[in-house]
Specification:
Blueprint: E1 4-14, E2 19-24, E3 37-40, E4 48-56, E5 59-64, H1 70-73, E6 80-84, H2 85-91, H3 99-102, E7 106-109, E8 114-122, E9 129-133, E10 139-143, E11 149-153, E12 158-161
Parallel strand pairs: 7-12
Antiparallel strand pairs: 1-2, 1-6, 2-5, 3-4, 3-6, 4-5, 7-8, 8-9, 9-10, 11-12
Length: 169
């Protein structure tokens, strides 16, 4: 598993005192609130200390320690924010998984047939979709709902699904 992974994207500034608007990639965006440090795309291994986080209109407003002016944070616009897996797991009180853990998982049917590999997970308002790359390279989508997804084994890199006619190309 990767040591760090993206948990959101800096999409804009908020005000003039160094707050950044974050589009979160998690179903529990306030987990970011409990973090002490983040990494920012393009900044190498530099840890940025989180000074404050709050929710605002479905987004997060993030303030970093030592950045008190809008001019200082402009270079971060449209960059991904990364978190350390160990930090997130330390505050995680549920047995869950992250999208980064699902990429590359084999998709097999309840009959045991391997039909492809998770290429991406698309997040939509109704439900997430697994973008699956079939053996022939064609992409197809499986809704992430209990009716289709029967088992997720992150450690074994395998997701078992109940297929119905019309889901595969």
């Amino acid at each position: 598993m990767t040591e760090t992974f993206s948990m959101g994207k800096i999409v804009n500034t908020h005000g003039v005192k160094g707050e950044m608007k974050i589009y979160p990639y998690t179903d529990d965006p306030l987990k970011i609130k409990a973090l002490q440090y983040i990494l920012i795309e393009g900044e190498g291994e530099t840890k940025h200390q989180v000074a404050a986080v709050r929710e605002h209109k479905g987004m997060l407003l993030l303030k970093l320690q030592g950045y008190d002016d809008i001019a200082e944070i402009m270079r971060f616009m449209q960059k991904e924010i990364y978190v350390f897996r160990k930090d997130v797991e330390a505050i995680d009180d549920e047995d869950g998984h992250y999208i980064v853990d699902l990429i590359g998982c084999e998709i097999k049917t309840t009959d045991g047939e391997v039909i492809g590999v998770v290429n991406d997970v698309l997040q939509h308002t109704a439900q997430d979709l697994y973008e699956v790359k079939g053996h022939d390279g064609a992409l197809f989508y499986i809704p992430v709902v209990d009716a289709f997804v029967k088992d997720i084994d992150v450690a074994g890199k395998c997701i078992t699904v109940q297929m119905i006619e019309g889901l595969m190309p």
